[in-house]
Design brief:
10 helices, disordered C terminus, elongated, mainly alpha
Length: 233
Amino acid sequence: MASDAAGPPGMDPYIIEALTYLAFCILLIAFRTYCRMRGGGVSALGPEDYLMIVSILPFVAETTIAYKVGETFHGLTNSDMTDEEREALSPDSHEYALRVGGSQAIIGGWSMYMTLIWTLKASMCAFYLRLTSGLPGYKKRVYIGFVSIVVSYIICMCSVLLSCQPFHKFWQINPYPGNFCEPAVNKLTIHLSMYLNFLTDMYLFLIPIPMLWTAQLPKAKRLGWPFYSPVVF
């Protein structure tokens, strides 16, 4: 089974796309940091800038894990198997080792994905905090945003790491461990991350709307705000 999944030689197009996207984003963050420092050096950087730089670490880790899952483990995990296939697969086989390794890597991938996305949310919130300096009424909304980011991140990470107990069942193959113990298709993790990601994005999107709407800005610029919101990313 594993040999069939390996496919033709050569790097997976998905991996090439992921590496290209990573390189582009690192260059974009570097250019952004350069522009911020050009006027006042390191002292010109704010918390949001440091968070953007820090986000490179989980981004690199996530991409590395994705590469390993695709190239080393051939995309194999403890999911997408019938009961008969699980019973027939020997624990001493190469495919068994690939499926165990792939499942373990997926847990790391989920963790790095959550950390990356929620670090970017925190960066956006830190930017709002600087943007609303001197506006106490708006700062309260930003602080609520920070709290929602922290709480939602903890919930998502708990779903990644604690939804299956004992922990080693995350890579159990036989008997079938249940959906919550299949890292690649864990419905709890998928749904929680999707909904909490959307809800926190929408809240961050709405924070500056009242301020921008009452500001003395051309209507076109005010209406163009959605294109610069975190929802776009």
